[in-house]
Amino acid sequence: MTTIDPTHLGLSQLLKLEPLELNLFRGWCHQGSPQRAFGGQVAAQALTAAGSTVPSERHVHSLHGYFIRGGRTDTPIIYEVERTRDGGSFTTRRVVAIQNGESIFSLSASFQLEADSSEHQARMPEAPPPDEASAGEQDESPIMLSAIEVRFVSDPGTGLPDNGRGPRQRMWVRAKEALPDTPLAHVCALTYISDIRLAGTAWLPHRDEPGIPQITSLDHAVWFHRSFRADEWLLFDMESPSYAGTRGLTHGEFYTTDGRLAASVTQEVLMRRR
């Protein structure tokens, strides 16, 4: 096998899978935190596998994933797709990520034929444009930063003032490379991006407590509302309304630069000190 330096890979390469057999794919993941496969990449690769079995005219509108075990970065991950249902308007897929004979992640994803309707949405929060926001001090991995560009609207160490909804933070994000002109490429890229700093939002008020932090994603859900490009700037607005019993809950919303609500994400995370 040819050795590739992952710090020079773009986002589309980080999400690429090798087809092995019908409904079976293989991928590799880079390190996240703490010293395990980055959960956003596992979820995005699982969605890539699911989308590879669905007609291109059906677009994913939601995914729900559970992190079962920490994944390794020195061993490939096998993604097994179950073609759960192909209906008149909706298609459902289930994916299990397997490593060393054990399930490490499970995903359910739903796809829909495009349909027109009336609309409403939340108003985009106020934020300076990306070119006026700060690159700041970033604690993401070098591989992640080689693929993703981040500009902070809020201080990455303290976040935004609590407005009664718990700790908050806000930043602009986009893929550094131009992505393919297919909706699946952009929703998979956004799934990867949606795991960046999301858990850290719940951690903001507790950063200075004593002990070694352990932060592990438990489950992750994303809803895709409107078309977007993940290689163009998106405002990622996050808040954490609850932390109790070592479990934190965080919500996030992605807005395009012209104010359209593109996607919403919710994550529950295990946070404790050792």
How does the SSE layout of this entry go?
Elements: H1 11-14, E1 18-21, E2 24-27, H2 39-51, E3 58-67, E4 77-86, E5 90-99, E6 102-113, H3 142-147, E7 148-152, E8 168-175, H4 183-193, H5 198-203, E9 213-224, E10 234-244, E11 247-256, E12 261-273
Antiparallel strand pairs: 1-2, 2-4, 3-6, 3-9, 4-5, 5-6, 7-8, 8-10, 9-12, 10-11, 11-12
Helix pairs in contact: 2-4
Quick description:
The protein is mainly beta and 274 residues long. 15% of the residues lie in helices and 40% in strands.
Describe the protein's architecture and organization.
The chain has one domain: Beta Barrel (Porin), CATH 2.40.160. Helices cover 15% and strands 40% of the residues. The protein is built from 5 helices and 12 strands. The chain has helices spanning 11-14, 39-51, 142-147, 183-193, 198-203; strands spanning 18-21, 24-27, 58-67, 77-86, 90-99, 102-113, 148-152, 168-175, 213-224, 234-244, 247-256, 261-273. It has a 12-stranded antiparallel β-sheet with strand order 1-2-4-5-6-3-9-12-11-10-8-7. Helix 2 (39-51) runs antiparallel to helix 4. The protein is globular. Mean pLDDT is 92; it is low at 1-5.
